[in-house]
Amino acid sequence: MTSDILIIGGGVIGLAIAIELKLRGAHVTVLCRDFQAAATHAAAGMLAPDAENIPDEAMYSLCWRSRSLYPDWTRKLEDSIGLNTGYRPCGILAPIYEESRGAGEQRSRGAGEAISSSSPLSPSFPSPHARESPAYWLDRAAIHQYQSGLGDEVVGGWWYPEDAQVDNRALAHVLWTAAESVGVELKDGITVEAFLQQQGQVTGVQTNAGVIRAAHYVLATGAWSNELLPLPVRPRKGQMLSLRVPEFLPELPLKRILFGQDIYIVPRSERSLIIGATSEDVGFTPHNTPAGIQSLLQRAIRLYPQLQDYPIQEFWWGFRPTTPDELPILGASHCPNLTFATGHYRNGILLAPITAVLLADLIWEQKSDPLLSNFHYSRFHTQPSTSTSMLTHSANFSNGHRHHPIVSSENPPLLTQDSTLVIAGKTFQSRLMTGTGKYRSIEEMQQSITASGCQIVTVAVRRVQTKAPGHEGLAEALDWTKIWMLPNTAGCQTADEAIRVARLGREMAKLLGQEDNNFVKLEVIPDPKYLLPDPIGTLEAAKQLVKEGFVVLPYINADPMLAKHLEDVGCATVMPLASPIGSGQGLKTTANIQIIIENAGVPVVVDAGIGSPSEAAQAMELGADALLINSAIALSQNPAVMAHAMNLATVAGRLAYLAGRMPIKDYASASSPLTGTITS
């Protein structure tokens, strides 16, 4: 039976959405790769919109609304299955040290009177905006009276009485059990490998158990989201540990959550103290480290010194899903039957109830809360207008950029009329493709692409994913309504890796408005020194990608037999190297490229190693259909001028090929006729 809703991700967000939709009458399935690995299990369970001092008003409103749902939400969950979530409206105390006293007191003066130990507590609000929840400033005497045992360096702090906590691991268990009890279909151990799309709709997901289909899909895979779609969601590792309050202490000495500088301590009723968390931009690097745990313990002991004598109970780590602005991605996507619920960063536990309600309203009732507009994925894909510098620069190279000079309206047709470049049924006027890497700046890259007149630009998917230098704003840097994106699997060492990155590249193109773009430049390069492509891995990956409907442009050694095999499995072009990539050595494989051109029934694109316009012209004179040039342009002293030169060379070489060069002779042949000459 096909589900109404297929939710990808079995953490707290995915499960909360599933339960809400099921209660509204939907048939819901949840796919979970590994329930125990979800970020839910690695959190501390703080519900702290006030203590976090969230500066973004929309985000604060979202968090505040979610916290207000928590009492009723957890009570209903607990009542339905008879299990406890550990929800407690315990409040959060945020102590401040001497070095932060100025900021704390300034905040107090901006919001109201500071509270001394002899004063009754009265509410004040964080400046600059009045907010829904009360907050109290405590001076040194008041805060030490309020919570004994704080470090001597604590000189004051804030008390947030409406912040709370939940036992995140207990909550995850309750949500999973509740989902089962209401009839949500839960499938653990299922890895989603790719979205299948057709005509702007998701038609299914490819998994390790085959294709699974539904009417609507929800992406809730947290830190792993950009393994499926090119969303700007990255893992931020957090290490944590817990201590055990010794049995000889009759009661818990710490009554409240302490939210200090880069540290928090969460007391649990079962006599555990949760200490967290580091914030490390290290990708999916696993394990606890001595440095990480040491930093947590040092900060925790400074805040609450008696912890130094408590026994350590457990260490663990997890990966928070973070976006560039640290706000979640919620709501509609580029496909009408796909909804996003990811990027919650440090507030996944807190935001579970409100995410479930808002997205259930959106999916099942077609009602969109105005707040969702602040978290739409498109905020990362605004299209800039062409910069003045680009227009000024490109004005110096105005002849023949947008179209092939032979068929330009500014030039009369020549006697030798050229055809256009056609790849998989798509027509291009320019026969020069360029890349986006190795430039000294985004501006140089923009100017060079304009000057080159190219219509196809390669984009290294993995470098965009990881925001490698020079690729941070690539999606916004070019006008993708005029340039065809060629996603590139650069950096992939195996066929499986290249297949996964190719799928991401296809989604990247769709996110940027190229709905029908299934192109991929296939690179499988395990050799780090010479960067030579793996012929076996390339052929293996090409076969699978062609089956999945990709237009495959494989980068290969100049191997005529391999080129033919790739054509036979359905590749749209072959792309033999002229010499090792980035070497600038020029044409070192001329004889083999000539054989490939002679035998090919698909366009042949000479790729890699071309270092100068003369070499570009020579490659085209051989009969190549197109060139792909990146390093020779990007690493030149004036990339825009070199790009223009490569454009002219490509055109000149193509014209020379069409015109047909004179035969090469072993002897001289006078250029002037000998008959009719004047003799003495």
TrEMBL record:
Residues 103-128 are annotated as: Disordered. Keywords: Cytoplasm, Oxidoreductase, Schiff base, Thiamine biosynthesis, Transferase. The active site is at K521. InterPro entries: Aldolase_TIM (IPR013785), FAD-dep_OxRdtase (IPR006076), FAD/NAD-bd_sf (IPR036188), Gly_oxidase_ThiO (IPR012727), Thiazole_synthase_ThiG (IPR033983), ThiG (IPR008867). It is an enzyme of class 2 (transferase). Residues 116-128 have a biased composition (Low complexity). Pathway: Cofactor biosynthesis; thiamine diphosphate biosynthesis. GO terms for molecular function: flavin adenine dinucleotide binding; glycine oxidase activity; thiazole synthase activity. It catalyses: glycine + O2 + H2O = glyoxylate + H2O2 + NH4(+); [ThiS sulfur-carrier protein]-C-terminal-Gly-aminoethanethioate + 2-iminoacetate + 1-deoxy-D-xylulose 5-phosphate = [ThiS sulfur-carrier protein]-C-terminal Gly-Gly + 2-[(2R,5Z)-2-carboxy-4-methylthiazol-5(2H)-ylidene]ethyl phosphate + 2 H2O + H(+). It holds the Pfam family DAO. Residues 4-362 form the FAD dependent oxidoreductase domain. Its EC number is 2.8.1.10. It is found in: Cytoplasm. GO terms for biological process: thiamine diphosphate biosynthetic process. One of its GO terms (cellular component) is cytoplasm. Residues 423-673 form the Thiazole synthase ThiG domain. 1-deoxy-D-xylulose 5-phosphate binds at G582, A608, G609, N630, S631. NCBIfam families: thiamin_ThiO (TIGR02352). Homotetramer. Forms heterodimers with either ThiH or ThiS. Belongs to the ThiG family. Catalyzes the rearrangement of 1-deoxy-D-xylulose 5-phosphate (DXP) to produce the thiazole phosphate moiety of thiamine. Sulfur is provided by the thiocarboxylate moiety of the carrier protein ThiS. In vitro, sulfur can be provided by H(2)S. This is Thiazole synthase. It comes from Nostoc minutum NIES-26. The gene is thiG.
